[in-house]
Design brief:
The complex is a heterodimer.
Chain A lengths: L1 E10 L2 E11 L3 E6 L6 H8 L7 E6 L14 E4 L11 H11 L5 H10 L14 H13 L5 E5 L7 H16 L3 E6 L2 H7 L2 E6 L2 E7 H8 L2 E6 L5 H13 L3 E4 L5 E4 L3 H10 L6 E6 L2 H9 L97 H6 L4
Parallel strand pairs in A: 3-7, 3-8, 5-6, 6-7
Antiparallel strand pairs in A: 1-2, 1-4, 8-9, 10-12, 10-13, 11-12
Helix pairs in contact in A: 2-3, 3-4
Chain B lengths: L6 H8 L4 H12 L17 H13 L2 H24 L12 H28 L1 H8 L3 H35 L10 H25 L2 H17 L1 H4 L6 H10 L1 H8 L10 H24 L3
Amino acid sequence: MIEAVGLTKRYGDKTAVYNLSFQVRPGAVTGFLGPNGSGKSTTMRMILGLDQPTSGQVTIGGYPYRRLPNAPRQVGALLDAKAVHGGRSARSHLLCLAQLSGIPARRVDEVLGVVGLQDVAKKRSKGFSLGMGQRLGIAAALLGDPQVLLFDEPVNGLDPEGILWVRNLMKSLAAEGRTVFVSSHLMSEMALTADHLIVIGRGQLLADMSVKDFISHNSADFARVRTPDTEPQQREKLTAALTEAGGQVLPEQDGALRVTGLPLPRISDLAHEADVRLWELSPHQASLEEAYMRMTQGAVDYRSTIDQRAGLQQPLPPGVTPPQPMPVPGQGQSGWYAPPPPQQGGQPFAMPQAPAGAPYAGGQAAGPYAAGPAAAPNPYAQPPAAPAPATPDTTQRTSEDPR
Amino acid sequence: MTTPHPQQVNQQAYAPAPQVPAAAPAGNWQAGPGGLYTSPIPVTRTHLGHAISSEWTKIKSVRSTMWTLGVFLFLVIGIGLLVATQTNDRDYVNVPFSLPAFFGLVLGQICLITLGVLVVSSEYGTGMIRTTFTASPQRHRVLAAKVLIYFAVAYVTSAVAIGLVGLATSAMHSGPEATGTEWAGTVFKGALYVSLLGVLALAVGSMLRHSAGAITAMLGLVLVPAILPAFLMISQSTRKIGEKMMDYNAPNSLAKIFGLDTESGHGNPQLWLLIGLTVAALAGAFALLEKRDV
C-alpha cells in the first residue's frame, strides 16, 4: 500500500505538488489522472525516492522507499520508457537490474517473454520503437515480481493490441492482490482499467473516489433537441418552454439544443404543447472524458489556442472576404463542455463523502487493515448511504436557477 | 433521475471494468495482509556484491567501453612500440624499459578520463539513472560499485598495456650496455596514476552529471596546468605558482613516474596529490549523490 501524507514539492518558487494526501490500496488498479504538468510524474518520483519532498512524506508498506531493504522485490516501476541506456541490449539492461537486487538471471528471460520482447532481446534498445520501449520498461517493473507496481503513462506509444494487453495485465496484477498505481492523462483509458481514481490538477487533489462514484457524480446525460432550421423562432419558443419547465438549455454549435434536467418524454410533451415541431430528439451521454475535462479545465497549465497565422498571410485582394472556418469544438473556445450534473447543488466536484468521515484522514488510528468489516468507510465499496443519485430531487433542481 | 436517462444506462456504458472489480477488492484488502501478493521468488538481502556484478554487466555491455579502451590500448601500445623501435640500447642506461609507454599514456589518459566520465554521466544523459536508483535506492552502493569496477578495469588495462610495452622494449634493447633501471614499479605507479585520473573523472562526472561538461572540466584540469606555467613564468609574482603547476601537472607527473626527471622522488608527491584530489572529489560526489533529486 502506498500512503502519501501532505506531500509537497517546490522547485524554486514553482510548486509542483501541494499538500497531496492519498492512499493506494492493494487488490485494485488505482488510476492517477491529471493534465500535463499537474504533478503526476513528480509525485511518482517522490514515491520512488528519486525526488525528496519539500514537506510531507510518502511510504510504501510503511517504509519510505529509500529505506526498503530490497526495493525492486517490493516495488516495480515504469517511469519513463526511454530511461534506458540505448547502447545496451534489452537483455543486458534487464540483467544488470536483476543482478542489482539478487534476482536470478532466469527471471530476465521470463519477463522478456511476458512482454513479448524475446526476439529482440539481443538488440540494442536504441533502435526500439516507443511501444517496444514501453514493453521493456514494463518488463523491468515486473522483474522483481513485486507487491506494488507503479506505471507512469504505460500505454504511451503502444498499438491497440498492446493497449489491450496492458489493460488486462494491470487488472490481473491487481487481482493477484497487488497494489497497482497507474498514471495517465487519458480518462477514457482509465475508465476501462481502473477501479479507483485519484485526480490531481496543479499539484492538488481534485478527486479521490472509485470510478463508479466518479461516473455517477461527474457524468451528465443530456438530450439533443433540434427544431427545424428554417424556423428559428420555433427554437426560441421551445427554449423558453423548456426553461420554464425547469430544464437547462444550451445552444450547440450546429443549432441544436442541449437539454438537461428533463426526461425525454417530457421534452416531447412540452414541444407538443408549445406547438413546435422537432427534427431530432435524441438521448446522449456526456462521456467520462468530458466530465474529467470539465473537472480539470480550471487546472490546465498548457492550453492550446487557435492558430491565427496572423502576419504570415498574404494580403487578400480587395473585395474578397476571408473564408470563415467552421469552428472546431474544443479549439480555443470555452463553454464547450457539458453542463455540470444537476444533482450536486451547484458545487461542481464534491467528493462523494464529506472529508471528515473519509478514509483518507491521515492520522486515523484504525488503518484500512486494522479492523475487519467494522472499519467503515471503504472507498471501494458502495457509498454507504448514497448522498445524491437514486431519486430525482426536483426541489433542489428548481432552486438551482433555471438558466 | 433528473436527467433524461436512468442512471443504469450510464453504468452499463462503463460497466466492463469498474463494476466487477470495484466490489471484489473491497473484501480483498479488508482481509488484511494475508490477502496480499507474495512472490514465489526468494528475496535475498542485497549488498555491495550485487551492485558490483550489476556494474560489471553494465560496463561490458556498452560500446563506449570497448571504444575508449580500444583506443587507449592502441595509443599506448602503438606509440610505445613505435618509440621503442626508434630508440637504441644506449638510450636505456638511465631510464626504465617501460619509458616508451609514457608517450602513449600522455594521450591515452584522455581515453580513460572519457570512460570514467561516461560510466556515470551516460546514465544521467539517458535517464537510466532513474531506473538504476529505483532498482537500488541505496545510491552510495551504486556509486561505490561503479568506482571499484571502473578502477579495476582501468588499472588492469593500463598495467597490461604498460607492461607489454616494457617487455617488448626490454626484449629489443637489452644489450650489454643497457642495463635498464628497475621498471616493474613504473608499471604499477603509471597504471595507478592514469586509473586514479579516471576515477577523478568519474567523481567529477557524478557531480556534474553531464558528459560533455565533465569531460571538458577534466581536460581542463589535465591540460591547463601543463600550458599555463609558460605564461605564469613571465611575471615574477606568479613565478612560484607556475613552478608548482609545472611540477604537478598530469603529463609532467607521468614523466616523473617514468623516470624522466629523477631528482624528485619518482613522482610520489604527484601521486599523493592525485590520491588526495580523488578522495576529495569522491567525498563530494557521495555527499551530493544522497542529497540531490534525480
